[in-house]
Every structure is written in C-alpha cells, then in structure tokens.
Amino acid sequence: MVCLFCSPIQCRFVAMNLMRLKHRGITHILNAAEGNSYMHVNTNAEFYAGSGITYRGIPASDTDHFDISVYFEEGADFIEKALAYKNGKGKVYVHCREGYSRSPTLVIAYLMLRQNMDVHSALATVRHRREIGPNDGFLRQLCRLNQRLASERKK
C-alpha cells in the first residue's frame, strides 16, 4: 500500500513522527524532498536507523525547472520493492514537504511505470485519494513519460 494518509500540511510532520509511522505499519519511507533548506524535509537514513523503516531520499526541489524525471525509475523501483516486502505486506509512505507536488509526482510515475497506467488515469487515481498539484514542470515531465511509454507499448 502506498500511504497517502496525511493532509498536505502534515506531511513533513508525519515523516518525522516515528511512533505514528510505526502505528500505521509503515515499513518504507520515500522522501521526495530530502535536504535541509526550508523547502525540504531534513530526514535521512540515520534518522530512521533502528526503527525498522527502510529509507530512500530524493533531493528534489519543487520548481518548474527541476528535472524530477531522473528519479522516476529509482522512485518506482523503491515503491515496488517496498510493496513486495514480506510477501506484499510492505507499506511505503511517500512524502515531501507539503505532499502536494513532489511526492504525488513520484507516485504518479510509479503508477505509470509499474501499473501500466497512462498519465490521465494515474493523475485521477491519486487525485481521488487526496488533493494534489504537481507543478507545471513536473506535469510536462509526466506527459513526456506518458509519450515514451505509449510509444514503447506500441512496439
């Protein structure tokens, strides 16, 4: 299960609350905003050491010109492995600072790459669960991924 349980404002706080994460059965964390600036969430593998939670950080910035697409495969691989953990019992919490742009973009890319969804279906699936708003640059990158995957599937 890809976890989208927090409201956008709570995302970074939930990511730093080990007790809440453990209570929710989270086994893996994908931080789409790793870093120590105001726009990032300052956690890393050391933060989760000893908790039993497997961590992966992506130092994405929520700007139109940031190339998050270079992390699509890495993020999808991590989510896929997390969900397969202990014969499908894994739960991955994908987050960023607000849960509005970066983390939904990576979840949408996962749905496209591993669940064979097109960009419209993947966006609708995530929007059905929560309010999201990937920035325009991220949306363009998802559209390019959609075009690439569509052409690969035709071959």
From TrEMBL:
- Keyword annotations for this protein? Hydrolase, Protein phosphatase
What range(s) does the Tyrosine specific protein phosphatases domain occupy?
Answer: 76-130
PROSITE patterns reported in the protein's UniProt record: TYR_PHOSPHATASE_1, TYR_PHOSPHATASE_2, TYR_PHOSPHATASE_DUAL
Instruction: Fetch the SMART domains from UniProt.
Output: DSPc (SM00195)
One GO cellular component term of this record is: cytoplasm
Known Pfam families for this protein?
Answer: DSPc
InterPro entries, per database record = Atypical_DUSP_subfamA, Dual-sp_phosphatase_cat-dom, Prot-tyrosine_phosphatase-like, Tyr_Pase_AS, Tyr_Pase_dom, TYR_PHOSPHATASE_DUAL_dom
UniProt GO molecular function: MAP kinase phosphatase activity; protein serine/threonine phosphatase activity; protein tyrosine phosphatase activity; protein tyrosine/serine/threonine phosphatase activity
Q: What class of enzyme is it?
A: hydrolase
Q: Which GO terms describe its biological process?
A: negative regulation of MAPK cascade
Name all Tyrosine-protein phosphatase domain ranges.
Answer: 1-151
Catalysed reaction(s)? O-phospho-L-seryl-[protein] + H2O = L-seryl-[protein] + phosphate; O-phospho-L-tyrosyl-[protein] + H2O = L-tyrosyl-[protein] + phosphate; O-phospho-L-threonyl-[protein] + H2O = L-threonyl-[protein] + phosphate
Annotated catalytic residues = C96
Give the E.C. number(s).
Answer: 3.1.3.16, 3.1.3.48
Q: Which family does the entry's similarity section mention? A: Belongs to the protein-tyrosine phosphatase family. Non-receptor class dual specificity subfamily.
**Role this protein plays:** Dual specificity phosphatase able to dephosphorylate phosphotyrosine, phosphoserine and phosphothreonine residues, with a preference for phosphotyrosine as a substrate.
Question: Which protein is depicted?
Answer: Dual specificity protein phosphatase
Record organism = Etheostoma spectabile (orangethroat darter)
